[in-house]
What we know:
With 228 residues, the chain is α+β, with helices and mostly antiparallel strands. The chain has one domain (8-224): 2-Layer Sandwich (BirA Bifunctional Protein, domain 2), CATH 3.30.930. The chain is 44% helix and 13% strand. The protein is built from nine helices and five strands, in the order H-H-H-E-E-E-H-H-H-E-H-E-H-H. A five-stranded antiparallel sheet has the order 1-2-3-5-4. The two termini are 30 Å apart.
Amino acid sequence: MGTRYFTPDLFRFLNELADNNDRAWFKDNQDRYEESVRQPALDFITDFAAPLAKISPHFVTDSRLVGGSLFRIQRDTRFAKDKTPYKTNTGMQFRHERAKDIHAPGFYLHIEPGRCFFGAGVYRPETSVAYAVRQRIVEEPQAWTRATRGKRFAERFELTGDSLKRPPKGFDPDHRLIEDLKRKDFIATTSLTQGQVTSADFLDLVADLCRRTAPTMKFICAAVGAEF
């Protein structure tokens, strides 16, 4: 048996935070956040370094309190419609070593009551990056199909995210993969249950999900000139 990182206390805390999303409540419950959410997540990130390195040595686990793999629970409300001060989820991202922002290829783990999922790929890439991925799909359609329709992928994953309403400029609107070429996001996701998150096998499960999406990530990395 492996290590049980997360317990139902994590979900209880996040549920209560959703009902009491203000700084006074959070301050009174800071110790609960540390014990049930942040420290378990940091422990998971630390221990995930070894299995992730076996899949690709170019993706990073960073257990620093600030600026690492764990997203801050504080919400940036400057430009958001939602002005509540805290997120009601725990997010972790394992980014490429050459990444400077969240738009670079990465693996993502989202833990939230009623909405847990794992994702892999590139979210809202800038125009030049999206063009590079589309161009590689045109040049290597069979490789893209294998990476996103293969048995191990399809057993757990589907491509998700937003798409353009019209074919992107410069690409054949009749291309057989036009729906993929229209994508704004090149990400694969799979849902997780709270039982899976709180199980002793969770680290092994996340490693398996990384392996299943490795061909997709390898394709995207090659498209943007990053090592895998």
